[in-house]
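Page 37, continued from 36.
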């Protein structure tokens, strides 16, 4: 009998604790359930040769910009050799999202001549 009461108390505690967690810490819905924006960014360079280092540095800069905006669970992926896919959960207007990311700064790559440094 005492063992049965212990199990009953444990189950009641587990249910109460689960309800507490659901009320105070709601689920963070992702892009598929809550909606959001998916932007495909294409890097364009005059000579059309974008190397991996340039792509990685652009990805790092964009990742910092998105993280500074406070967007939770954003996803930035490389697509091919010159495209990045940015997913922003909760952002319903893709045009506004692209304006926010684009207006932070102008990102240009220029080669430096060897005699200037």
């Amino acid at each position: 009998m005492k063992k049965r009461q212990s199990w009953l108390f444990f189950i009641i505690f587990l249910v109460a604790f689960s309800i507490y967690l659901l009320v105070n810490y709601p689920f963070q819905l992702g892009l598929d359930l809550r909606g959001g924006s998916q932007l495909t960014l294409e890097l364009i360079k005059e000579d059309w040769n974008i190397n991996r280092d340039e792509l990685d540095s652009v990805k790092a800069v964009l990742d910092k910009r998105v993280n500074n905006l406070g967007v939770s669970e954003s996803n930035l992926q490389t697509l091919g050799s010159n495209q990045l896919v940015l997913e922003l959960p909760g952002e319903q207007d893709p045009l506004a999202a692209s304006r926010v990311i684009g207006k932070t700064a102008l990102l240009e790559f220029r080669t430096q001549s060897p005699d200037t440094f």
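Strands lie at 36-42, 75-79, 83-89. Flag for discussion at group meeting. Residues 42 and 59 are 11 Å apart (CA to CA).
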